[in-house]
Every structure is written in C-alpha cells, then in structure tokens.
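Step 1: inspect the first sequence and its tokens.
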Amino acid sequence: MLQGTELVTANARSHTCLLAGQFIGDVNVLVRLSFGIDSQKQVAMKLAVRSEDQYVSDAVHEIIANA
C-alpha cells in the first residue's frame, strides 16, 4: 500500500487505497481502489488498474473484482 492508504478513520464514509507492485513476469501494476458506504450501509467499490500490459491490467481487475 502507498502513502498510508491502509489507515481508515472510524467514521469514514469513503476511502481510497493505492496499491503498487509487480505481476508475474515483472510487469509493474498500479491499483486505485475506492470504497464508499451509503446510509443503508451498502458498500460500493470503484477499481482502476494500470500496467504496461493490457492483459495484466485485465487479469488484476478480474482477480480483485471477483474476490
């Protein structure tokens, strides 16, 4: 995780987590994962994945979205 993005305050209604790493084959990957919660306690997730290889970006997106 980057820039202390793992820390969430107790009363937060949204949060963004930034991730950076390497996928198989030494492909650099960046991920921005944003969460929000509404008044009914339903959570929404927005995911953005970037890498040098479109196939890697798609694979990481699928892994996180279906976890």
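Step 2: inspect the second sequence and its tokens, then contrast the two.
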Amino acid sequence: MSFIIDKQTLNDLGIFSRNKEVSVFGIYNTVHTRGGARILEEMFTNPLDDVAKIRKRSGLIGFFQKENPDFPFRASWFDAAEFYLSDRDTRTRISEEQNLLYQKFRHFIKTDTEYRQIRSGIISLICIIRALRDFVEAMSGKGCREFMEFSAGIMPVLDSPDFKSVMSGDPEIMTAETSGTAALDSLFRYSRYEDVNRLLDYVYRLDVCISAAKVAGERGFTQAEVFPATENIMEIEGLRHPALADPVTNDIAIDGKNNVIFLTGANMAGKSTFMKSFGIAVFLAHVGFPVPASSMRFSVRDGLYTTINLPDNLNRGYSHFYAEVKRLKKVAQSLCTWRNMVVIFDELFRGTNVKDAYDATVAVTQAFAEITESIFIISTHIIEAGETLSHLCGNIRFLYLPTVMEGERPRYTYRLEEGITEDRHGMLIIRNEGILGILN
C-alpha cells in the first residue's frame, strides 16, 4: 500500500503549484537531467509508507548533504545518449558491412547525419558510464551503508567483460572506424540495452538525490528521523514554511495523549501558514526528502488529508458548506479503513451559520479525538467550541497564535502559545482600513 494523498491536499500544500516561489516541487526541481525530473515527479506523486524505504532514501540524501559532491555528468551527454537510445529500429543498426568505401566516403564528406548522431550517442554513453564508475568508486570509500546498497546493482554491470572494454581509451578513436562503432552500437542498443537503461536510471536517481541534498544544504533543511507507526511519534522543532525568506519557526509535538490540535487565532495571525508548514513537513518526510525544520521525528503514517483552500463546486451545484460536508465525509470514510492518518482542517464549517458551525465543530472534533492513532489539526474562529471541548476531551491540545496590540494596530507574533485566543479584532481592522468612512 502507498501513502494516501489526494489532489485537494496537493493543491492545499502547493506541492505542484505553477508558481515556483510557493511550489514545493519547484523548490526541489534543480535536477540536471530530464530523467531526473521524471523520477523526482514520480517520488512526489508517490510518497512512501514503508519505514525501511524512507530510511534508505533519506539516508542517501543525508549522505550527499554531508559529502556535498557535484553531479559529475555533462547535460550534453544525456541529450545525445537519450536521442541515440530512443531509436532501436534495426534498419539504423551499424554493421560491419558499412565499412565499405561508399560508406566511408559519405562519412568523410559529413553527409551521413544518421551515422554521426549514432556515433555521438555512443561517445556520450561511454563518457556517462566512465563518470558513473569513477563516482561510485570515490563515494564507496566513505562508508555509507545507504550508498553501498544503492550502488550494489551498478558495479556488477560495469565489471562485466562487455562494459570493461569501454572503460579505457579515447572514445573518439574507439569510434573512428566503422567496425568499432558497429561493435559498440550492438552492445549499447541491442545486446545490453536493458543494462544500459538500468545504469542511466541509477544516474537519474543520483541526480535527484544530489540535487535534493544541495537544496537542503542551501536552505537549512534537515533529514527527518522515521519510526514505525506503532510508536505514534510526531515531533518537529524549528518548523517553517519552505517558501518564506525570513520565517518565524515553531515547535510542535503530537502523540496519542494529545492527538488533536485545536488552533485558534485572529485573521492574519498565521494559522493557515502554520498548518501548511506542518502538512508540507509530513509530506516531505514521507517522500524521504529533507524537511523545512531544524529537526523532525515521526512515525510513518497511512496518509495525509488537508482542507485549507476548499473551493465551491458550482458545476455540481455545491455550496461551500456542502463542499465542506462532502470533504468531511470522504475523510471519515478513509478513517474507517486507515486509522493512522494526518488530517488538517482550516476553519472547519466556515460555510454555515455560527450556531450550526459551533455544534458541528464540537461534534466532529470530539469524534476525531476518539481516533487516537491519527493526528488532527483543526482551526476555527469559534472559540466557544474550544471552551466546550476542553471539558469533554482530555486528549485535545489547545494552541493559538496571538495578536499583540500596539495602540490601535495589531502585530502578529506567529508564535504558537498554549490556550485559546481571546482576540477579536475584526471590527478594529475594518475601522483601521477606513471602510465605514468610505461608505459614509
């Protein structure tokens, strides 16, 4: 089973946003190859729910973050090699029979474009294979278990007699004669084609991991420490949103004794940003990538659902409130199957009247609190619901983001504090903006 996440959650957290400044994928998409970009997207589309797999990927990226190697391949090599390998039509296969005077003449006057493209692809592949061997040999002496496991499938291929034959000599000279080109073409495109593609896949994964390590080093991200689901751990220090240049950080710890976070605070106090930051950290941790925090320890989860920017569904005649109810129903159905989830609701039941919102918030939050294996973060403006819940449930932690008044102007600290807010500054902000004066 894979980690459960849906389009709404990906959109809420800005995972694949078109705006690179707020796109988590865009932050990490610094790869050098098209193959690397494809694998990076696959990783982001399919987060992991297996502790061993997360540790292996996280450990490899952490190793590269510590050693800080450069990607030892030229982008131009991949353009030529990928184009060459994409055509396996046997009619383009180089053969010994092409070592005729006519073929030599065409090659000499540079009219045989197809032949030159094949030769360029072969030379580029030789360069890639040699650079891969040198990199693996250099990194293998560092004593990283994750790298040794990663590279275990590389060296048997490179040490085979077929591939050893291309490890020395000038590639230009090796392909100067048509007979040499024909032998290498037979090796790369036909007899060992699957092995060649396997080696390229290793290179693309190196591209992803080295690039992720560079991003983490530049931005101060850290590797999350993963534990089995049974340990029910979620501890993050120095949590921040990855797209903010000068963010305020927060610490958060959640377990079975306080698996529900009831979050209050004024508009603009930072509730949505905090919840997005938390969701992004959970997502990246399950991808096995560095997280925007100073440290993180977490138990692997079954999945992540968020409801932060829920749109109306006008095409289906849904009001905002009904869209909220449909979303809540989907989450509830998932919780019947997978009890070890992370669920985030921003401004639960904002689409209905205050009385119904109060009753529904209390009832739903109380029901969530009974599922102690899962983590819930619920924000609301209805602070009376929090006061009621404090008497009903012992495993709800009440946090708020305060507003400090400086005269008639509010200042937001963006720092979590224990308790339920008493801030009610909506009318003050309206007055400060002079709206009533404009209307009058």
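Step 3: confirm your contrast with the notes below.
The chain has two domains: 7-28+221-439, 51-218. The chain has a mean pLDDT of 89.
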